[in-house]
Design brief:
The protein contains 16 helices and 21 strands. By secondary structure, the protein is an alpha/beta fold. The structure holds 5'-deoxyadenosine (5AD) and iron/sulfur cluster. The site of iron/sulfur cluster (SF4) has 11 residues, from helix 7.
């Protein structure tokens, strides 16, 4: 029998990258081999994102391109996984009747069985979690299973960097956002399971772990005896895992940025001084309409608190421009916030109305696309200036860089061996490029910053020195995944 072949393409955030890693892990266990094009594959999967219309359009186009191929190869299995599957369900089969599997975010563990069922019956298979209004909270929660222990290092951003899910779902219900329905109710994973997974990953060579949760800082786990574990406790629990050098966590919800967490980031040397805390808008009227549950004043206070508690912390944010009813005045408030907040970077998105969300139900999508585009560019330009000023302050400093591998440029030129341009990240998540041997990937090395652009630092490895552990003292993506080529870098969107 020939080895069955799997092609998987991932769109969206880090949660999806992790889900794809788990799907690949479980299918490899069934004997599957990963290939780089749908044409070579027996099973073709798209792991999808629903956060913006654009991400969905991309998937429908990709499915459209496969129509003829699937008709010519009726034995192949085509599956749509993840957020779009959970959100659109049968609609996917109506738009692309040659799709064989529609599998939601909470049902990915079923995939090996679903493939077998398709092969046996050639009937389309749907595996979906319950909608939030369909059953009790317990039943809905149970239908979004956690599916985490099966890992596959070849699917990671790099073999030494790994994601660990600490929280599933979201209960915040921001009015623009599909995630509470595509990923279900918020559930904190059991701390012992998380710690065991971190240990396993570190034993297998991971030196950097990024804890994932839609609102990771709201993480809570309540034991039967009433004891509560918070994110700060979890960080402390995993901190001394042998082999781990760096711990990060994304994404934070502004209102839940507790002092216990900031103290933990300050006091635990392996927890990196980097916080992603999306503001979404600088205008209270918009924040209220978005149901973000904080005001700009309290967001500003939160920023001050982060910086007081954690000297040298880098903070990044997300913004939505052109949300329903956003006037020029509202938008200018967002510009003011970006000008003054000194974010390391901001991810900026044009509002995309999503069916089934409160905003779509309550408010007209009344900012013209042209205006959204102009605002997007204006805000980007402001953030670029801020980022450039921030990056320039790094010039002349020596920072500890986790070497990730050849830079995008080096990969474009096909340089994956011999001295070339490498890329890596500082403890504050700044991207640095420098010359070196790709064998240095996975090492933490001192790099002196020579030059700064808005989103990249240029530096030189300090020769004759090697650093194993992190020291905090000297220091104060994206989109479109495929089955990765070896050593190919992958960029993703921030978590919602
Ligand atoms: N339209 C545009 N951007 C959105 N985001 C979430 N939902 C939408 C939407 N409907 C953005 C938010 C979030 C980021 C990952 O995506 O800024 O933080
Ligand atoms: Fe939850 Fe984030 Fe979406 Fe708000 S934007 S509903 S916090 S996932």
């Amino acid at each position: 029998m020939t080895t069955p072949k799997l092609y998987i393409e991932t769109v969206g955030c880090q949660m999806n990258v992790l889900d794809s890693e788990l799907v690949v892990g479980s299918l490899r266990r069934q004997g599957y081999e990963l290939v780089h094009t749908p044409q070579e594959a027996d099973v073709i999967f798209y792991n999808t994102c629903s956060v913006r219309q654009h991400a969905e359009d991309k998937i429908y186009s990709a499915l459209g391109r496969l129509r003829g191929h699937m008709e010519r190869h009726p034995d192949k299995v085509l599956g749509v996984l993840g957020c779009m599957a959970q959100k659109d369900q049968e609609l996917i089969l109506r738009r692309a009747p040659y799709v064989n599997i529609v599998c939601g975010t909470g049902q990915l563990a079923q995939l090996p069985a679903l493939i077998e069922q398709v092969k046996a019956t050639r009937e389309p298979q749907l595996a979906l979690s319950l909608a939030r209004k369909e059953a009790s909270r317990e039943e809905v929660t149970a239908s979004f299973e956690s599916y985490d222990p099966m890992r596959d290092p070849s699917m990671r951003p790099t073999p030494f960097q790994a994601y660990v899910r600490v929280q599933i779902g979201c209960d915040k219900f921001c009015t623009y956002c599909v995630v509470p329905s595509t990923r279900g109710p918020e559930q904190g994973r059991h701390p012992e399971h998380i710690a065991a997974e971190v240990k396993q990953l570190a034993d297998e060579g991971a030196i950097e772990i990024t804890l994932l949760g839609q609102t990771v800082n709201s993480y809570r786990y309540k034991y039967g005896d009433g004891r509560v574990v918070r994110l700060s406790d979890l960080l402390e629990k995993i901190h001394d895992t042998p082999g781990l050098a760096r711990i990060k966590f994304i994404t934070n919800f502004p209102r839940d940025m507790g002092d216990d967490l900031l103290d933990a980031v300050r006091d635990l040397p392996r927890v990196m001084p980097y916080l992603h805390v999306p503001a979404q808008s600088g205008c209270d009227i918009m924040l209220k309409r978005m149901k973000r549950m904080y005001t700009i004043e309290s967001y500003r206070e939160m920023l001050v608190r982060c910086r007081e508690k954690i000297p040298g912390v880098a903070i990044s944010s997300d913004f939505i421009v052109g949300f329903c009813g956003e006037t020029e005045e509202s938008f200018q408030k967002t510009c003011d916030l970006v000008r003054e907040s000194r974010f390391k970077n901001s991810f900026i998105f044009k509002y995309s109305a999503r069916a089934g969300t409160k905003a779509d139900e309550l408010y007209p999508d009344d900012v013209p696309e042209e205006v959204k585009k102009v605002r997007n560019n204006e805000l980007l330009a402001i953030q670029s200036e801020v980022s450039l000023a921030d990056q320039r302050q790094m010039v002349g400093r020596t920072v500890e860089v986790l070497v990730e591998g050849p830079s995008k440029n080096a990969l474009k030129k096909g340089e994956t061996s011999g001295p070339t341009q490498l890329t890596g990240r500082t403890p504050t998540d700044h991207i640095v490029v420098f010359d070196g041997n790709p064998r240095l990937a996975g090492r933490i090395l001192p790099v002196t910053i020579r030059e700064a652009a808005a989103f990249t630092l240029f530096g030189d490895i300090v020769t004759g020195e090697q650093v194993g552990a992190e020291s905090r003292e000297p220091l104060p993506e994206r989109q479109g995944e495929r089955s990765p080529e070896p050593s190919e870098k992958r960029f993703t969107l921030p978590l919602v």
